[in-house]
Design brief:
Length: 131
């Protein structure tokens, strides 16, 4: 992942900037325990001016560390898309909003449906809004 992230950054998103119909981003966040800077490449969905990301971790029963970090410090997040970094506020979505987004998310990354079958945990969905 570190090599992919580096190539993504060097190429301005031309390399590893898309997987099938889904665009890729790099989520910059801080470890909730360590305070260290972290980078996580993720598939994302545009929703108006906002960006939507999913904590699937390939269907692992374990929650991705970045989810815990966003929950702990939702205002300490930066989104990088094609070389442009934007400070964002992360808000976990649930209920009707999540239900409305889920089919749209599956359109761009159908693998999430398969990942969801591998685990009993419900994947968290986050809305990232520019600060």
């Amino acid at each position: 992942m570190k090599v992919n992230t580096k190539l993504y950054r060097i190429s301005g998103g031309r390399l590893f900037g898309r997987f099938d119909r889904a665009e890729m981003c790099v989520l910059h966040h801080r470890g909730r325990k360590s305070g260290e800077a972290r980078e996580t490449p993720l598939v994302f969905l545009r929703d108006g001016e906002d960006t939507i990301v999913v904590g699937s971790m390939g269907g692992s029963p374990k929650m991705p560390a970045w989810v815990h970090n966003l929950r702990a410090a939702p205002d300490a997040v930066t989104l990088e898309v094609r070389g442009r970094r934007t400070p964002v506020l992360a808000a976990e979505v649930d209920g009707a909003e999540r239900d409305e987004l889920w089919p749209r998310l599956l359109e761009i990354w159908p693998a999430w449906a398969d990942y969801q079958l591998k685990t009993e945990r419900r994947f968290p969905v986050f809305r990232l809004s520019a600060r």
